[in-house]
Amino acid sequence: MAQRFNWLRSGRVITGLVIVTGLVLCAVFAPLLAPNDPTEQDILAILVPPVWLPGGDWAFPFGTDSLGRCVLSRLIFGSRIALTVAVCGALGAMVLGSILAHIAGYFGGWVDWVIGRVVEIWLSFPPVILSLILMVGLGAGLQNVILAIILVDWTRFCRVLRSDVMVVAQRDYVAAARLLGFSHWRTITREILPATLPLLITLMSLEMGVAVVVEAILSFVGMSVGAEIPAWGQMIADARADIYSAPWVLVLPILAIFVTVFGFNILGDGLRRTLDTRLTQTERA
């Protein structure tokens, strides 16, 4: 039983869990945590500095923007958009990419060749440019942002997992499962998938960080949520005009994106190091 929870002893996992848990709590309890309405404008409190700077006001702990909106409240509510896109986008890309990766790596032959060529063609397009092209075709909106991330980033999972599946498929216990009459579906789900799961968890965590950055880029150019919904990329775009007079309005959403991506990445790396028995044995050796 104790071995099942060895991953909790990793400093990387604990650090990542703390950051991700904080993000989840902010997203779930945003109405309770936010000191003000994130969309409420106060023309008498424009560009109020944070409380740690001279002239700060505890009514706006992180200050206000050029429209008198509370920066802290907008950061907290913006975590909802970031978390929604991170979970839904990464999960969709993982499902599509991992299914094709397992099919290509398990069956090989012409099936692997066809899927491999599709991945190569898809990867020939720069991810950010392809996302922008898809958003132009799909239109602005959170659902379309998630769909664009899925359509662009499924290749990350497919390309990396395919080679891992090919290695696992050659092992003796997989051959024994075939000799026992296991169906292809049962062989993949019962014998191959558990072996590739640590890598899948790592890729999922990394993709969640990538999804947060992509959503920030799309909201920065006005192709994500509407102006009435707080989003970190939108906050950065609004803060460009006040970068010299009120730098905190620009720095704080950038810091929120950095910490979130760092949390997802370090969590994935920690889980990879503790769950992957092959990597653990290599480090011990």
TrEMBL record:
The GO cellular component terms are: plasma membrane
Intracellular or extracellular location(s)? Cell membrane
Membrane topology, from the record = Multi-pass membrane protein
| The UniProt record lists the keyword DNA damage | no
What is the top-level taxon of the source organism?
A: Bacteria
Q: Keyword Transmembrane helix, does the record have it? A: yes
The protein depicted here goes by the name ABC transporter permease
What is the species listed in this Swiss-Prot or TrEMBL entry?
Antarcticimicrobium sediminis
